């Protein structure tokens, strides 16, 4: 079963829109009882689900950081090692926005496809890319961790909301599926991911919005969550950290929402408004070019 996000491999995610690209067709099948559960990368799940759907489980998270993968045969170990003008591939505006701030002399280009396709594009002798940036969790799950050159951990690069975690989506009226999912859920991951998703929900962000996060459970029932919003050019950046007591799902979501409100009040709203205008402009330009 393929989703719109799988089928459209040519257009930049920034122009395609929200996270439902990866879930809509699957949710229709589940609501029609064709399947009973959906397993997603949690970062691809919209923060607001369709009526009749809910997240039944969030499994223990892999390391959520992004990683640098350098073209085979090149000696570079970090982004800072790459010569000026080197081309770095990523389909994420979040990564591009944050890294442009720190590495303005590198060139960031879109790269789409599954992991093997992206690695093939990277290693092609006549390929443009010197390196690509990927989520570490996917590399590890597919046994490709030997290709990882270096981690890009916060604060160098804040990862996507819920990155590294798998989520199980079920029908809201399926009590049997809910019982099964209860045994799958990893509570520390659940609390962190729901705080991050709550932050993103208030920011009204999606796959194509440069929102980064980092969340820790700091002991004695406390959570620390950092969020950032960065303009596409990297010129504007808003970042804040909140810490609070979190003993329940409700408290986790409340802390995430509070962080989003602080970000919005200190500059994130202006950045997101500018991004929305830019996206509509570029979508119009794409339609004109195609006609």
From TrEMBL:
InterPro entries per the UniProt record, alphabetical: HemC, Porphobilin_deaminase_N, Porphobilinogen_deaminase_C, Porphobilinogen_deaminase_C_sf
Gene Ontology CC annotation, any one: cytoplasm
UniProt pathway: Porphyrin-containing compound metabolism
Cofactor: dipyrromethane
Keyword Transferase included in the entry's annotation: yes
Protein's GO biological process: heme biosynthetic process
MF-aspect GO terms: hydroxymethylbilane synthase activity
Keywords assigned: Heme biosynthesis, Porphyrin biosynthesis, Transferase
Enzyme Commission code(s) on record: 2.5.1.61
Superkingdom assignment: Eukaryota
UniProt-listed CDD domains: PBP2_HuPBGD_like
Short name of any one Pfam family annotated for the protein: Porphobil_deam
The keyword Cell membrane is assigned to this record: no
Domain Porphobilinogen deaminase C-terminal: 191-264
Location of the Porphobilinogen deaminase N-terminal domain: 1-178
Matches recorded under PANTHER family: PORPHOBILINOGEN DEAMINASE
Similarity comment text for this entry: Belongs to the HMBS family.
NCBIfam families per record: hemC
Protein name: hydroxymethylbilane synthase
Species: Neolentinus lepideus HHB14362 ss-1
The organism's taxonomic lineage, starting at the top: Eukaryota, Fungi, Dikarya, Basidiomycota, Agaricomycotina
């Amino acid at each position: 079963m393929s989703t719109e996000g799988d089928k459209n491999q040519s257009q930049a995610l920034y122009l395609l829109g929200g996270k439902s690209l990866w879930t809509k067709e699957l949710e229709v099948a589940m609501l029609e009882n064709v399947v009973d559960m959906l397993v997603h990368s949690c970062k691809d799940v919209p923060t607001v689900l369709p009526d009749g759907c809910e997240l039944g489980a969030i499994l223990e998270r892999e390391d959520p950081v992004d990683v640098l993968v350098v073209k085979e045969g090149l000696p570079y170990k970090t982004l800072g090692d790459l010569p000026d003008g080197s081309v770095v591939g990523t389909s994420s505006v979040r990564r591009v926005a944050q890294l442009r701030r720190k590495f303005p002399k590198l060139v960031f280009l879109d790269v789409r496809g599954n992991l093997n396709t992206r690695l093939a594009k990277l290693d092609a002798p006549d390929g443009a890319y010197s390196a690509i940036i990927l989520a570490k969790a996917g590399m590890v799950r597919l046994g490709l961790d030997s290709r990882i050159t270096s981690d890009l951990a916060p604060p160098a690069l804040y990862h996507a909301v819920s990155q590294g975690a798998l989520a199980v989506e079920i029908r809201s009226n399926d009590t049997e599926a809910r019982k099964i999912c209860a045994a799958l859920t990893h509570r520390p991951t659940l609390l962190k991911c729901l705080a991050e998703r709550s932050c993103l929900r208030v920011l009204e962000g999606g796959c194509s919005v440069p929102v980064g996060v980092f969340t820790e459970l700091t002991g004695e029932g406390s959570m620390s969550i950092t969020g950032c919003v960065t303009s596409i050019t990297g010129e504007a950046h808003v970042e804040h950290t909140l810490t609070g007591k979190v003993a329940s799902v409700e408290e986790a979501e409340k802390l995430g929402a509070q962080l989003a409100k602080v970000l919005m009040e200190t500059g994130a709203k202006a950045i997101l408004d500018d991004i929305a205008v830019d996206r509509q402009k570029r979508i119009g330009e794409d339609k004109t070019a195609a006609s």
